[in-house]
Design a protein that fits this description.
By secondary structure, the protein is of the alpha+beta class. The protein is built from eight helices and 25 strands.
């Protein structure tokens, strides 16, 4: 069997983990060197006058001595459609990310002496269509079949990581503080019981209490940071039944500076420091995609996944049945669907939207008055649903006619719906 990988791509640093089926667990892949580190700075450097590209700390070192040109903030470069000129050659953001991504994946290939990849989940902090597409193409470029590549956001992979742990960890709510160079992020997971399947809801928030990690380089800065985080913990944890608190990110690579904060979060709670929760969670997800029966029989509701099920009623075989167009808990980037119907005396199509958490249905009406006027039951339509985020659905209704008697006009009704 080939590699089963989780790859976390962020603007400050990236990480990679492998799922090991024999252990039903994950292993972290480190960047080799004098200091073995799982955190790979998201930078790439082209060596001067050579077709050699370096990543991470080695890239910094070569650029520092003037032997290469460094490019950083690769995710931001993609989002702003930027370029970098190196030795007179202009490289676009996709080319640079493809080179960086290939080197990261090569770390796992070298560690396990295995070239083929059987399943890969790439995780990013926020789902952005342009970024998602480029990362998928980067994976394909380094030899991973398209159907074996998926992109999940951090909240999704946080959910996989936590639910892979002993159930005592998530008996109540679970909190995650992720402190990194780009800010302080707070994730909260809770299992909503009494449903089948169990609903796992995870939220993410960038906290205003974030600070530059440079302040940790002095005793006075450490004291200030500890004070800030303690006040933050008091605020976000107040009144909640938290069974476990997780700490991740470069800022928590050591917690010697955070005595007061630790005293606050450890009060009647279990506290864990994690090296790379998102890459590990992505690896668990990649491993689960290989199974015939999931090891995660839950309905995940979080950023990156649909919070509601969308359906409509249609008559099939003389019976009125519900047709599910998109299922709550599905990754929105993979949630599109299409179906064909014949219109039977309808002026509007009524969609039912049922949130997984509350179960309270709402309706969306889509007028059909723009379709060609024909006798009843002589208009066939194609109904297409797609998503540009977990909250924004696009519906397209295309006139497909009715045989030779009523040729298709390909008229399109398009409506965007918030769900």
């Amino acid at each position: 069997m080939g590699l089963i990988l989780g790859v976390d791509i962020c603007d400050d640093y990236s990480q990679i983990s492998a799922f090991i089926p024999e252990k039903n667990d994950v292993e972290q892949v480190a960047l080799p060197g004098e200091k073995m580190t799982e955190r790979i700075p998201s930078v790439i450097c082209k060596k001067k006058d050579a077709d050699e590209w370096l990543i991470g700390e080695e890239a910094y070192r070569v650029a520092l001595f003037g032997n290469g040109t460094l490019v950083d903030r690769l995710v931001k470069l993609i989002l702003k459609k930027g370029t970098a000129t190196i030795e007179g050659v202009k490289y676009n953001s996709e080319q640079l990310m493809t080179k960086f991504f290939g080197r990261v994946v090569e770390l796992a290939r070298s560690k396990y002496d295995e070239k083929s990849v059987e399943s890969m989940v790439i995780t990013v902090q926020e789902m952005e269509p342009r970024l998602n597409d480029i990362l998928i193409r980067a994976a394909v470029h380094c030899g991973v079949p398209r159907e074996k590549v998926h992109v999940y956001c951090h909240a999704e992979c946080c959910s996989y990581y936590i639910m892979a742990q002993n159930s005592e960890i998530w008996a109540n709510q679970v909190s995650l503080f992720d402190l990194r160079g780009t800010g302080l992020y707070y994730y909260e997971l809770k299992v909503i019981r009494g449903r089948k399947p169990l609903v796992v809801q995870t939220t993410r928030e960038k906290l205003e209490e974030g600070f530059s990690l440079d302040v940790l380089e002095s005793p006075s800065g450490e004291k200030l940071a500890d004070s800030i985080l303690t006040a933050c913990a008091d605020r976000v944890l107040s009144g909640k039944l938290i069974s476990a608190v997780l700490l991740s990110g470069k800022g928590f690579s050591t917690t010697d500076w955070a005595g007061s904060f630790l005293s606050t979060v450890c009060n009647r709670r279990r506290v864990f420091q994690t090296n790379q929760i998102f890459a590990d969670g992505a690896a668990f997800a990649a491993g689960d995609l290989m199974r015939e029966n999931t090891a995660f029989p839950y309905l995940f509701v979080c950023e990156g996944r649909l919070a509601s099920t969308v359906s409509l009623f249609a008559v099939y075989g003389g019976r009125r049945e519900s047709v599910v167009l998109s299922q709550a808990g599905t990754n929105w980037s993979e949630a599109g669907s299409s179906a064909e119907f014949i219109i039977d005396d309808l002026k509007n199509i009524e969609l039912s939207v049922v949130p997984a958490v509350t179960g309270r249905a709402s309706k969306i009406l889509i007028p059909l008055d723009e379709l060609p006027k024909r006798p009843n039951k002589t208009t066939r339509i194609e109904f297409i649903v797609s998503f540009s985020s977990e909250h924004l659905m696009t519906v397209r209704i295309i006139d497909r006619g009715f045989g030779d008697m009523f040729p298709a006009t390909d008229k399109v009704i398009r409506q965007e719906c918030s769900i």
